Amino acid sequence: MITGSLVALVTPMHSDGSVHWEHLDKLVDFHLDNGTHGIVAVGTTGESATLDPEEHMRVVGHIIKRVNGRIPVIAGTGGNSTREAIELTEEAHKLGADACLLVVPYYNKPTQEGLYRHFKTIAEAVPVDQILYNVPGRTACDMLNETVERLADIPNIIGIKDATGNIPRGAELVEAVKGRLVVYSGDDATAAGLMLAGAKGNVSVTANVAPKGMAALCEAAIAGNEEETERLNELLMPLNRKLFLEANPIPVKWALYRMGLIGEGIRLPLTPLSDRFHGEVEDALKASGVL
Questions:
Q1: Is there a domain that residue 285 lies in?
Q2: 133 among known catalytic residues
Q3: What pLDDT digit, counting tens, does each position of 117-130 carry?
Q4: Which residues carry out catalysis (predicted)?
Q5: 162-177, pLDDT tens digit by residue?
Q6: Which is the catalytic residue, given 94, 107, 161, 286?
Q7: CATH of the domain at 109
């Protein structure tokens, strides 16, 4: 079972938007050295929407090679086309990904039956472990708990990243699918609560800049240590809030730049963090003990 702090890794870039491979190695090593339990490669935070398919898979393969089996690598391979998602998932499987993360199809707003058939078709086409990803705030399509329950009976669908931020709903899902698939939080601000309710980890943006703290928080919450979870959650909360002042990954890429880990590169239509937010993000880094 994949558990703990699963960093939604950024994709570092040069000023012209091309991938910065040396900085990518630096980030992977940073997480290996600081206790991160797993890496999610080329998800939303990794700017999957603006990497072409060849680049997408090259980044996934590069991370898998650099990690070299030391921690799990989960490849983002979702799409709003079932056929495209299958192709990306097949390629990630060939590259050696431990699992694939498949987002709910965005923009085209499928029905619940359409969602069920989409994920079932991918799971049956590619024999790699698969984690569903529900993030209605980005996809404009909400996969209901009842649909997840139907999918939980498919053997290689092993988990779901729940980024609804709704702890009561997430806790209900944990109970409904217990023993069949694992629930992960996909919302840093509410992750502690969901893990205390039974989720087994957090796919985290905050872990990009605070890997030790997020790993410790996940370990404490999964173990049911409420006092330590509350202490660590309070420490990280400034980052959980300020890293979303503008669309993710704009603030976290600036934070990593401020920490000296990557350059300022980001791809249009995303733009560098607005000057007016620099102080707030820097203050959050200091308040959480990162700077």
A1: no
A2: yes
A3: 999 999 999 999 99
A4: 133, 161
A5: 999 999 999 999 999 9
A6: 161
A7: 3.20.20.70
In a domain, 290, yes or no: no
Angle of helix 21-33 relative to helix 53-67, nearest 10 degrees, comes to 40
Q: Which position among 116, 120, 133, 212 bears the catalytic label?
A: 133
* 204, two tokens: 């985290």
Query: Is 203 annotated as a binding-site member?
Result: yes
Residue 90 located in a structural domain = yes
Structurally, the chain folds into a number of domains equal to: 1
| Residue 155 included in any domain | yes
Residue 45 assigned to a binding site: yes
Establish whether 120 is a catalytic residue: no
